[in-house]
Write a structure and sequence with these properties.
The protein is built from 21 helices and 19 strands. With 578 residues, the chain is α/β, with parallel strands linked by helices. It has 3 domains: 25 residues, no CATH class; 242 residues, Glycogen Phosphorylase B (Rossmann fold), CATH 3.40.50; 253 residues, Glycogen Phosphorylase B (Rossmann fold). Helix 3 crosses helix 4, helix 4 packs antiparallel against helix 5 and helix 17 runs parallel beside helix 18.
């Protein structure tokens, strides 16, 4: 970049992006040489794609932040022709979860059909439609076909999952070429997108470039972003599967041999070959980067560069709260803290906090009109009541059951402070263990006279409900088992919307000291449960104590606002890459 000053010497984000826009990144990024971001999951219902959770929401936020920052950016993802919705049904006090599958037509969302590309399998050629939608400086490019299936369809080690990943990688790379695009960088959002980098390596090696030069070039222009912590838990594919779905798409014999050599005992983890093809590697929080236990093929531990996830604040923060941040000079035009923002946050009073949150209670209640609870009924929360919320994918390590470890204790706290507990999160289809856990939790609630009146579950969790819970609730609970959450972003939305955070010191939360939120502590789970209930009592009490409420909200904002900004995240990526 031909800047007057090195990019990494520009401390403020506004100056950083102004410099980028002024020079158009002509030496690194341009319309023809964009930043490309590959993801199997994208969560942006405004643009027709429903993801599964935080990974997809992150991808959508990354694109929106790039658009606001005028960065040439192309997101490549599948357009799934069917999407899953979750329903809950109560019969005689027992709760059954069911999945509903609905078709989705990309034409309704303004996508333009470009052309078809194809990939090869042992059964022949599969034609893939290429569609795109341009949004400012960014473009969404999707590959799709009627039989593509839903997000995460089938077993993680199954043929259909491998087909989807190969289709995105090889089909998506061909789609870029249709538009005359040459990626300045390829960011692989998790290992399922490995095949995009493999397609590039194969193109270079089969077009006359020396194989080792092709490897070096691909490595230097590829970033692997890891979102998980344990390599051993990763799904594996067999050499036979690769011979049926991957090798037919390779033209270079050198690439075929290079790839075949990565298999050990007839199996391969995608992370092993992704590590080999990407010289640049990032983790998504400081703690995640320290704890992630990944090894290369030689057995050496892989180092990840820490770039904590962020959110598009302009999307996830209520307009009245966003207006307060801007009016008081707390956030700049890229929604990152301005100079002396800590002092400006001191103008925030308990009266103002309550007033801003109360305005958004209507947003929550209006949204709940479209989301029946576990009994199929519409819930309206009284204006003078407090709301505690939990909203995350319903997976084991996030421990949705932890607050219900002692139902009587939870009930006593909720009744004492006139509080309601709202929780939501979809169970991954086929996860029988968590399906049963959800049914058991709902039975516990149903059989408790107090909890039945104050605890409500909403089955079909999506980004609209996520927003409403963030802006309308008073307290959020985030209790993953420490060491298992890579980052998480739901808690970021709660903090930015003036919610009081109760959390374990895990993921991105651990970027800050644990005295900046109500921290759930304990060496064993029994101690954590006791700590959680104490934190809940103190957090609820803070809403009736001006000093405590101001103290906690100000500490959260002063410490977390610089971390949770999507503009900060994008700036960090650009600094690292270029």
């Amino acid at each position: 970049m031909s800047f007057d000053h090195p990019v990494d010497s520009i401390e403020d984000t506004e100056g950083f992006f102004d410099a980028i826009n002024r020079h158009h990144l002509t030496k690194k990024l341009s319309t023809d040489n964009p930043y490309t971001y590959w993801s199997m999951e994208y969560y942006d219902k405004e643009n027709g794609i429903r993801g599964g959770g935080g990974l997809g929401v992150l991808a959508a936020d990354m694109r929106r932040v790039a658009e606001k920052s005028n960065i040439p950016f192309v997101l490549i993802t599948p357009f799934y022709p069917s999407e899953q919705h979750q329903k809950i049904k109560e019969i005689d006090g027992k709760f059954e979860t069911a999945s509903v599958h609905q078709p989705v037509d990309y034409k309704k969302y303004g996508y333009q059909f470009i052309d078809t590309v194809n990939i090869k399998t042992e059964k022949g050629i599969v034609n893939l439609e290429v569609i795109k939608k341009k949004l400012g400086s960014t473009t969404i490019i999707c590959i799709t076909e009627p039989g593509f299936g839903e997000l995460y369809a089938g077993e993680s080690t199954g043929d259909h999952r491998l087909y989807q990943e190969v289709a995105l990688g090889f089909g998506g790379y061909q789609a870029l070429k249709l538009g005359g695009l040459k990626p300045a960088i390829m960011q692989l959002n998790e290992v399922a997108t490995f095949f995009a980098a493999l397609a590039r390596l194969d193109e270079l090696a089969s077009s006359g470039m020396d194989f080792y030069e092709a490897v070096v070039y691909t490595r230097k222009h590829t970033l692997y972003t890891n979102h998980t912590l344990v390599q051993a838990a990763e799904a594996q594919f067999t050499l036979e599967q690769f011979k049926r779905f991957v090798f037919p798409n390779l033209r270079s014999n050198a690439v075929k041999k290079w790839l075949a050599d990565k298999f050990e005992g007839n199996r391969v983890k995608l992370s092993t070959i992704t590590i080999e093809i990407a010289e640049l590697r990032s983790g998504v929080s400081k703690l995640h980067t320290r704890l992630a236990n990944y090894r290369d093929q030689a057995g050496n531990k892989v180092k990840f560069h820490p770039i904590t996830n962020g959110i598009d604040i302009s999307k996830w923060v209520a307009p009245n709260i966003l207006n307060f941040y801007e009016k008081e000079g707390i956030l700049d035009k890229y929604y990152l803290p301005r100079d002396q923002f800590e002092q400006k946050i001191e103008t925030l009073t308990a009266e103002k906090i309550r007033a801003l949150k109360q305005e958004n209670r209507n947003v929550l209640n209006e949204t709940l009109n479209s989301y029946p609870n576990q009994y199929g009924k519409i819930v309206t929360i009284p204006d003078d009541a407090l709301i505690v919320e939990y909203k995350r994918r319903f997976v084991a390590y996030k421990r949705p059951e932890l607050p219900f470890s002692d139902p009587d204790h939870l009930a006593k706290i909720l009744e004492e402070f006139d509080a309601y507990y709202l929780f939501s999160g979809r169970v991954h289809e086929g996860d029988d263990k968590m399906t049963k856990k959800l049914s058991d939790l709902l039975a516990i609630i149903n059989n408790h006279p107090i909890l039945k009146k104050r605890v409500f579950y909403f089955a079909d969790y999506d980004e609209k409900l996520s927003y409403a819970l963030s802006v309308g609730s008073n307290i959020s609970i985030n209790v993953p088992k420490v060491g298992l959450e890579a980052c998480g972003t739901s808690w970021m939305k709660d903090v930015a919307n003036l919610g009081v955070l109760i959390s374990t010191a895990d993921g991105g939360v651990a970027d800050c000291a644990n005295n900046n939120y109500y921290c759930v502590k304990g060496q064993v789970e029994e101690d954590e449960i006791s700590s959680l209930y104490q934190c809940l009592k103190e957090a609820l009490a803070s809403w009736n104590n001006d000093f405590e409420l101001e103290y906690m909200i100000k500490r959260e904002l002063q410490n977390f606002l610089p971390i949770i900004s999507g503009a900060r995240m994008l700036k960090d990526y650009l600094n690292y890459l270029f």
